[in-house]
Amino acid sequence: MPGENLTREEARERARLIDVDGYTVSLDLRSATAPAPASGPRTFRSTTTVRFRCAEPGASSFIDLIAPDVLSVTLNGDSLPVDRVFDGARIALPALSATNELVVDARCAYSRTGEGMHHFVDPQDGETYLYTQYEPADARRVMACFEQPDLKAPFDMRVTAPAHWTVLSNGEEVGEPRPCDNGAASTRVFARTPPISTYITAVVAGPYHVERDRYGRRLPDGTTLEIPLAALCRKGLAPHFDAPEIFDLTKRGLDFFHEHFDFPYPFGKYDQAFVPEYNIGAMENPGLVTFREEYVFRGRTTRAAYQGRANTLLHEMAHMWFGDLVTMEWWDDLWLKESFADFMGAFSLVKATPFTEGWITFANRRKAWAYRADQLPSTHPVTADIHDLQDAKLNFDGITYAKGASVLKQLVAYAGEDAFMEGARRYFRRHAWGNTTLEDLLAVLEETSGRDMGEWAKAWLQTAGVNTLTPQLTCDAAGRVTELAVVQEAPEPPRLPAGSAGEPAAPGGSPEQVLRPHRVAIGLYRRDPASGTLTRYARTLTDVTGARTVVSELTGAERPDLVLVNDDDLTYCKTRFDDASLATLREHLGSIADPLARALCWSALWNLTRDGLMPAGDFLDLVRRAGGAETEVGVLQMVLAWAGTALTRFTTPERRPGQESATAEAAMRELRLAPPGSDHQLAWARFLAETAVDEQHLVLLERLLEGKARIDGLEVDQELRWALLLPLAVHGRVDEERLNRELERDDTASGRRHHVRCLAARPAPEVKARAWADVMESDRLSNALIEATIDGFGRGDRRELLAPYTGPYFEALERVWAERSIEIGMAVVRGLFPAAQGDPATLEATDTWLRDHPDAAPALRRLVLEARDDLARALRARECEARAAG
Q: 742 to each of 136, 227, 276, 738, 739, how far by Cα in Å?
């Protein structure tokens, strides 16, 4: 991996020299269906012609290509010696002319890791499916290109593939397919794209199931915009594919963005492909958006899952403008597309779709991702300091996405929605087809808002860490508020291991002792004696600045039972409670009438637990007593996920069995109380499967699986069957033969992932040894099966089974990072970190590795530091639990 890196300085120098006029790329994918070679990778032919200019004739540069075999390199008609100019990742370009034409003929490798041209064979029907995934820098695995976002160019794509396949690229297909191989294959030619970055070019090819529709809109100039729509998935998923719902959301989104952006969708068609073994949620390739196929729901799922899919669809659509039309100059400003798309995804979800609860989910689920990332040693400003491509890969994180979106939500409250949207419109018009930096965005926002964006940007975009806001309340004898103040704390410095002082926490540095300006709503709540509900009776909107802000507007109000700082979730912060409010929540959390306020309280209580200020047992007790009252299923599912973490990571080993039994019993109770066939019933059923440890609960899972027990309204479909089998595998109640029978019942791509996960979860030394070897000593598994194996490997509370792998894990880190792709390297480093040991000895082993490997790749050290921080946080939470118990 290090030889494939590209630094910011190299990219800047190349951008100074090079302007790209266009690419013609010809891919021959007929080899995809041929038998795999006896040795070496499966390859395809890639021929790239690049037309470009050089600002300094006679200068040298390079073009990027990762390929096992380059057949020829021709520069301006001269053949270059491949063995001298190609090093496996770059092709040297000597003595450039003012105008140049480069032709590179290569054999590129199909991928099994979701990077470049991914190759997947469907176990259901033996058909082959291909798709590309490039961000941040994997287009070079498919074609020779200048792999950096600011060297945009038009692309002419040509693809030769089996004649019966669907083949798509960014542009529409031009003309009829050109037959070859006596009609067995054909070449498809696609319309030239507008100038776009290499990382958003795309190809999807295979016998996909395709459904089509059209979108039409009358534009202000009197013309009509017609956009062909397509939605596709593997044939095996076609019975589950709800394309009409996808098209409905697509049209709602296009209507919304046209109304608010005042810049017509600029990429012609709009295809959406749901593809197998995808590493991420989705990718904004213009005209050909790709999604993970898990968004095609094979079984019963909850409204929260459909909302999540809708949010992702709108997030990617926002990228057509934020990212594709206007692109960041370098990965430092990744937030210019991701933060905006994350914000616009939630904003449009609420405004344009039936999922009007979108901001509740954002507050509870999305921001939790940001809060965690912003407290790691690797925290960084929203505008990060990205030195190279490995930095960039790791910065697709909760800060770049969810914190940035939260900051933009704060900006809307600060500057006004109208000014924000007018700023976006001017940004698109001014920089269409170009590349931008932070300064370009601030310039238009200053114009439209009339505010100085420099101080706002410094506080919110150029500093790291999360502030904490805590109310201070005093009342008189008559029960009236005499003073309400909000105390702001600076971000907590990162906790680095001993001996690592001075090490940069991450690209962008560590949190600063900054007190930010917060536009917040403060709500006062009291409990109605008759109904028992907690409702808001007073609210004010105020600016919190500095260490302590007095909120005079609420002086004289009746004493509240609950003070909620950041009511309505306008700012980005952790919130705490005064003692009286915390006591109210312990008894009446489920009685809060407003679902957003309730979600914010759940989030704040979880942050208290993560920070070691509330015992995990107290949080679990709240889940057991108040979880059943949670009306928003998305919030409930997030709370139950937190409860699972509290059980497995934050509870002391001595108290864990009792907490698990009590929590599983509560899940059983709520499962039976939930309305039959409801989302809540399904959520509690899955949580019972996650927490079942006692004989009675495991027997119930077995009986449900066998059809010998029934819970009214609960459909045990294939996806739920695998969810019930997993805990039975963890507890050694099913063997390989039983799991193989289930695979025969569901021999699909999803079924194979579940099967591998269950196999690796069984509690036997030989099982763990096999799973370890499959991941660490072999590359036979695809990315999806590696992730499933890693997940199963770490399941269960059997530390004696995993303890033998702590030493080998640290011994293998640098080898894995050097030999495997960065995607697989990240999965291994994160997934196999021995966190389940949960003891100081594991922490010391981590610190020893960090101390003894100062020269390891910075991205690798960052991943280990992050895993270490999670472990150290878990140990602090256990200390809090032990103090409360003792």
A: 38, 44, 21, 7, 5
Sign, CA dihedral 108-110-111-115, equals positive
Which residue carries 């140990």 as its tokens?
875
SS3 462: coil
Q: What is the DSSP letter of 377?
A: T
Mean pLDDT of 320-342: 95
In the prediction, which pLDDT does 508 show? 42
Strand 99-109: give its sheet, edge to edge: 78-80, 69-75, 99-109, 43-54, 18-28, 155-162, 185-189, 178-180
Give the pTM: 0.95
Confidence of residue 410 (pLDDT cuts 50, 70, 90): confident
Secondary structure of 525-579 in HEC code, one letter for each residue: EEECCCCCCEEEEEEEEEEECCCEEECHHHCCCECCCEEEEEECCCCCCEECCCH
- Is 316 a known active-site residue? yes
Q: List C-alpha distances in Å: 539 to 336, 528, 843.
A: 33, 17, 46
Question: For residue range 752-779, what is the model confidence (pLDDT) as tens digits?
Answer: 999 999 999 999 999 999 999 999 998 8
Which tokens belong to 676?
């039959």
- Catalytic site residue from 316, 630, 632, 742: 316
**What integer pLDDT is reported at residue 505 of this predicted model?**
44
- C-alpha separations of 164 from 177, 204, 212, 213, 876 in Å: 11, 14, 18, 21, 59
Cα R_g (the chain), whole angstroms: 28
- Residue located via tokens 């004289």: 556
* pLDDT(340) > 80: yes
Query: Is-contact 539 567, C-beta < 8 A?
Result: yes
- Choose among 108, 97, 84, 106: nearest CA to 51: 97
446 closest CA partner among 417, 415, 410: 415
Q: Tell me, what's the pLDDT at 497?
A: 81
Q: What is the DSSP code (8-state) at residue 364?
A: I
Contact 337, 328 (CB under 8 A): yes
Over residues 360-384, the mean pLDDT reads 94
Question: Taking the CB of residue 743, how many other CB atoms lie within 10 A of it?
Answer: 18
CA gap 758, 432 in Å, rounded: 49
CA distance 277 to 385: 31
pLDDT tens-digit map of 125-159? 999 999 999 999 999 999 999 999 999 999 999 99
- What tens digit of pLDDT does each residue of 617-661 get? 999 999 999 999 999 999 999 999 999 999 999 999 999 999 999
Rounded to an integer, what distance in angstroms lies between the CA atom of residue 133 and that of residue 291? 10
